[in-house]
Design a protein that fits this description.
The chain is an alpha/beta fold. It contains eight helices and ten strands. It has a six-stranded mixed beta sheet, with helices on both faces. α3 (about 105-115) packs parallel to α5 and α5 packs parallel to α6 (about 180-195). The chain starts with 5 loop residues before the first strand and ends in an 8-residue tail after the last helix. Mean pLDDT is about 90; it is low at about 255-260.
């Protein structure tokens, strides 16, 4: 049973760009909560504010107004060591284009955040072995990124994002650079981590198939919440949830093919 404890709260979040009469309201008063162990998807058309939202939560950009709380702590007030700890330990970030270091092997890429945070070597090896076995990437650990397929690179990147056991994983279009088979494999693994390990995941995606693995989806438009869908667990299949997602995307305008 999923926890009812709030892990993340977004309160009246606004992010404006420009000045005077040329202000762009990327986020215009958005509020929502994420529960521990939830797999939350964020969808919306190009320019709707979903990437800006993720970057605000990641603390890479500062909102104009509003607050973001992780377990009750206002991340906007974090500075120095506490901010570094938030970015390094409290959140894990899974990028669309992998962002692996080309001169490091798969093992070394996964090990890097643990080395930065001085995790004991024995614990490092135990965590990496467990994660890489689950993600089915042990055969590429001694390979460099150029020797891996796109799906293997993204699963190595997922292991790197998860290895410090963050309180929440932020995934930015994680299937965007993958073929359909690799995308399905990745989403099955992420969904399994969410269900079996209780990992909390917040994913921005344009991919309706990827979104169908989520337990809840927020649709945003023009910087505000447009609609919310909850998967009817456990009876609703991902295929049935997919059909409901498509219906909402059509209402957003232009159908799923135009939702980026």
């Amino acid at each position: 049973m999923r926890s009812m404890n709030k892990i993340l709260e977004v309160q009246s979040l606004r992010k404006y760009y420009g000045k005077g009469g040329s202000i762009t309201k990327a986020l215009n008063g958005m509020s929502f909560q994420v529960l521990e162990g939830e797999f939350l998807g964020i969808m919306g058309s190009s320019g709707s504010g979903k990437t800006t939202l993720l970057n605000c939560i990641a603390s890479t950009i500062r909102p104009t107004e509003g607050r973001i709380l992780l377990k009750g702590e206002d991340i906007g007030r974090l500075k120095g060591k506490k901010l570094a700890d938030y970015r390094g330990n409290k959140i894990g970030y899974l990028f669309q284009n992998f962002e692996l270091l080309d001169n490091l092997t798969g093992w070394e890429n996964i090990m890097l955040p643990m080395a930065i945070h001085n995790i004991p070597e024995k614990e490092c090896r135990q965590r990496i072995q467990e994660l890489t076995k689950y993600l089915d990437i042990r055969e590429v650990l001694m390979k460099f990124p150029a020797q891996m397929s796109g799906g293997q690179k993204q699963r190595v990147a997922a292991a790197r994002a998860l290895v410090l056991e963050p309180e929440i994983v932020l995934a930015d279009e994680p299937t965007g650079a993958l073929d359909s088979k690799s995308a399905r494999t990745l989403m099955e693994k992420l969904a399994g981590l969410n269900e079996e390990k209780g990992s909390t995941i917040l994913m921005v995606t344009h991919d309706s198939n990827a979104a169908s693995y989520c337990s809840r989806i927020l649709f945003i438009q023009d910087g505000i919440l447009f609609h919310e869908l909850r998967r009817r667990m456990p009876e609703e299949t991902s295929e049935e949830f997919y059909e409901r997602i498509i219906t909402v995307l059509a209402q957003l305008g232009g159908g799923s093919a135009n939702v980026l």
